[in-house]
Each structure stands twice: as structure tokens, then as C-alpha cells.
Specification:
This protein has 224 residues and is an alpha+beta fold. The chain contains 4 helices and 11 strands, in the order E-E-H-E-E-E-E-E-E-H-E-E-H-E-H. The radius of gyration is 29 Å and the shape is flat.
Amino acid sequence: MADKPILRAVAETDPGDSSAEPKTVTPADAKDLEGLWLDPSLGDGLVDTHLQSIAVGKPKDFFRVNPDTAYRRRAEIYVHKVEGLIDEQNFIMGPAMQGRIEEAQHCTLVTVVYRDGTPRLWALKLPKGSGRDNEAWVTARSAARAAMSKWVKLVWVGRAYQTREAQPGYAPDPDFSKLPPFDELVKLAFGEHGIIRDEKHPIARDLLGAAPPKSSGDDDDGLS
């Protein structure tokens, strides 16, 4: 079996200088290998983070809220709850559907970050028009304001939220500059079907009691 090539460092010394330190010389074959590698600033693909999806809902752990106004928007959101299931689905109402669905709620959609940098979107509910506010909504918004400057956790007490501050040293301030643009976060959070733009959306059809869509095999004249 042929010997495998070995990378080696050759020590060179000046024969006339007994006190000289050996000099390490990179052999030509090692220099050739150094030219194979791409720029390390491109990352190695192992520690680089690529978001695939983002959760929507109130934060479950200690969190911070991005104070940049570019990372929050007013919206109208419908929360779809399926009987027998714990998970909820959130849908943003498009311009043509705003005000059409009574169950949809006005909100401010804010960007939340956990200690490990994981983002999520949180819909802070607001009263409609001159409608009444409630304590749960008010205290949730208060908690979000506190989280703009310190790490806090939501604690439900009675009918309102309280905040628990993290202890000193829990985590440094998050680097919000690493977040993708807000619109990209929304796409990742709500997906292709997460915006109800018209009455053709399946959720809108269910809420409005629309007739089931005709299948491609249905005849308009009812004849077989």
C-alpha cells in the first residue's frame, strides 16, 4: 500500500549560530493546500443560522422586544382555534378583508427575541375604534415596553400580566442587527396561506358561511 502524503514542517538553523532558534518553514505542498480553502468569512455552514419558520404568539420565556419601530406594525389578526386542539393558527387580514370578520382583532405586531437569538412575533391586542380596552391587553403592552430595555418574563396573575425581571448576568443585550428584515420575518411566521386577502381563502369561507367551492368535475347546468 502506498504511503499517504504527510504534511511536515522543516526546521532550519544557521550552522554558525548555536543560539539561533529553529525556523519553521512551510513546505511547498502545504502552501499548495492553503490555496484550496475559500474565504473563512463566508462561514462554515455549521454555526450559521438560517431561519426556516418563526412562531407567533406571546413569549414563553425571558425575552426582549426590538425597540426599532421598523420591527413592529399595526395589523388586524384572526386567531383560528380548532376544537380539541391546543395549537392556534394566526392569520393577517388583507386590506380587502379588514373589518369584514368580527372575530379578527386589531393589534400591534412586535418582534421578540429570546436569549439564544431566536425571534418570534407577538400580537399585542388593541381595542377596535372606541371599543373598550381590557386589563390583559393593557398589561401585555406594558410588559412589551419593559422588554425593550431589559429581559423579562410574562407571569399571569388573576386577569392580568405581570413581569418578572431576569437576574443580573442572565444575558447580554441582544444583537438586533442580526435579524432579517421585518417583512421577511412575517413571511416566515405566517407562510403562503397566512394572509386572508379575499373571501376565497378557506378560513374566510368558513367564517362567512360560504358555499363549498365547486370541484373541477362539477357541471354548471347540473347535467351528468
